[in-house]
Amino acid sequence: MDLIAMLQKLDTAIKTVYKTTKKEYKDPLQGILYDITPVTGAVNNIVTLNSVPGMREFKSERKHGVADNTVHTIAPRKWESTLDVEREKIEDDDLGQIPNQTRVMTTKSGRHYGALAVAALPVGFTANLSDGKPFFHADRGNLVPGAFSASTFSKAFDALVGMKDADGDFINPIPTHLIVGQENREEAEKILLREKLDNGQSNTNYKRVELIVDPRIAGKAAFLVAAKEGMCPLTIAERVKVGAPVAKTDINSDRAFETDVFSWGLRGRYDAAYQAMQFIVTVKGS
């Protein structure tokens, strides 16, 4: 089989694996912590972060760049992920790992929206929005100080159901999920998954909300979310959705001539944005 035919066959295989893997993966925080908002230009209150695992911010010649952690109006950033295959592997039909590598690349790109949303959470304690206050702030009613415990969980629950709109009217969000990292897993399970307390009395918080333990969340903060209000607390402002891998397989290109490497790349333009502070309350922890 000639090289062009082998490249076409490989291209079909990579795109098939991508399509199948993309259908199989759904981020556990999508539809709970964040949703996806198609946008056509600049978006207010975008969170720009230094580094998030999975895909890299697109800079010139696909080199990793550093963004700052401010909150301001910005066009969604470009992100990329690239799979390189050496010409010798194609000529020798040594392509056994390519499907696995494609699955890994696809899964990481699928996790990237959630990774951006999770990375936006700690920034929400420090970076000011356009009104001069962080996303999580006592004045907004969505910040409970103190270590995470049954007591602070109850305070967060009361704060969330007691949220008001700009006119001072109750909006009555219904808490649905508690999101914690590994550091709060044990305490969260004690609060939500025990039918009986240590004193033998019934646990009034038993399965009060659904527990999500996400290892991407670092530190002691816990986040109580109302996920059935038609809008999530955060959103991914999506200017260009990540599509099927684009192949760079022209055997007559300068790159192929100089490097003997063919590439398949993913590309998207999107970023995390704060959206609905009245549908999330955090226990900041210590």
Describe this structure in words.
Helices cover 28% and strands 23% of the residues. It has 6 helices and 13 strands. The radius of gyration is 23 Å and the shape is elongated. It has helices at 3-24, 87-91, 98-123, 150-161, 185-192, 254-259; strands spanning 34-38, 43-47, 56-57, 71-74, 78-86, 143-144, 177-180, 210-213, 222-225, 234-240, 246-248, 261-274, 280-283. The N and C termini lie far apart (63 Å). It is of the alpha+beta class and 286 residues long. The strands form 2 sheets. Strands 1, 2, 3, 4, 5, 10, 11 and 12 form an 8-stranded mixed sheet that branches. Strands 6-13-9-7-8 form a 5-stranded mixed sheet, covered by helices on one side. Helix 1 (3-24) crosses helix 3 (98-123).
Secondary structure layout plus pairing:
Elements: H1 3-24, E1 34-38, E2 43-47, E3 56-57, E4 71-74, E5 78-86, H2 87-91, H3 98-123, E6 143-144, H4 150-161, E7 177-180, H5 185-192, E8 210-213, E9 222-225, E10 234-240, E11 246-248, H6 254-259, E12 261-274, E13 280-283
Parallel strand pairs: 1-10, 6-13, 7-8
Antiparallel strand pairs: 2-4, 2-12, 3-5, 5-12, 7-9, 9-13, 10-12, 11-12
Helix pairs in contact: 1-3
Concise description?
This protein has 286 residues and is α+β, with helices and mostly antiparallel strands.
Estimated structural class: alpha+beta
Strand content: 15-25%
Low-confidence stretches: 48-53, 62-74
Principal-axes shape call: elongated
Number of helical regions: 6
Question: Over the alpha carbons, how many angstroms does the gyration radius reach?
Answer: 23 Å
What average pLDDT do the residues reach? 85
In total, the number of strands is: 13
- Order of secondary-structure elements: HEEEEEHHEHEHEEEEHEE
> Which sheet architecture does the biggest sheet show?
8 strands, mixed
- Oligomeric state: single chain
Terminal CA distance reads 63 Å
Helix content: 25-40%
